[in-house]
Amino acid sequence: MDRPNYITPAGYAALRAEYEQLFATERPALVETISWAAGNGDRSENGDYIYGRKRLREIDRRLGWLAKRMKAAKVVDPARQEDRSRALFGATITIADEDEHERVLTLVGDDETDAGAGRIGWNAPLARALRGAAVGDVRRVELPAGAREYEVIALSYPTE
């Protein structure tokens, strides 16, 4: 990876919890099922064995991806942000477009995005445009639907 994988402590904890759940609970249970199914004889028509092996590959692939993301993660606590006058990682920003429609967004790591909850990835086009903005700044964003301008109405960070 050529750029850091910024992530909040809560986002890192979620990645870690998923890894632990897959590694300590789901994978061992699946290995036990595969072992049982393999002991039943003909494996070519054994649905438990075939599905189990396929699911085991999926779990192993996901575990590898999670391990890689956690290794590259740089945990940044937004509550400890020193410059709270600018939109930096972890900021919650209220923006308004040209039609005065307001949106509240939080800049989070790319692994913890949830557009429906207003959490956008640090490297998303809108987040890149808002980086470093202060209250009152107007930023132009090139989106797939065309260029838009947003004004920063409010800016806040979580408290410790």
Automatic annotation (TrEMBL):
Gene3D superfamilies: Transcription elongation factor, GreA/GreB, C-terminal domain, Transcription elongation factor, GreA/GreB, N-terminal domain. The keyword Flavoprotein does not apply. InterPro entries: GreA/GreB_C_sf, Tscrpt_elong_fac_GreA/B, Tscrpt_elong_fac_GreA/B_C, Tscrpt_elong_fac_GreA/B_fam, Tscrpt_elong_fac_GreA/B_N, Tscrpt_elong_fac_GreA/B_N_sf, Tscrpt_elong_fac_GreB. Keywords: DNA-binding, Elongation factor, Protein biosynthesis, Transcription, Transcription regulation. Residues 5-75 form the Transcription elongation factor GreA/GreB N-terminal domain. Residues 85-157 form the Transcription elongation factor GreA/GreB C-terminal domain. The keyword Transport does not apply. It comes from the Bacteria. One of its GO terms (molecular function) is translation elongation factor activity. Belongs to the GreA/GreB family. GreB subfamily. Necessary for efficient RNA polymerase transcription elongation past template-encoded arresting sites. The arresting sites in DNA have the property of trapping a certain fraction of elongating RNA polymerases that pass through, resulting in locked ternary complexes. Cleavage of the nascent transcript by cleavage factors such as GreA or GreB allows the resumption of elongation from the new 3'terminus. GreB releases sequences of up to 9 nucleotides in length. This is Transcription elongation factor GreB. The gene is greB.
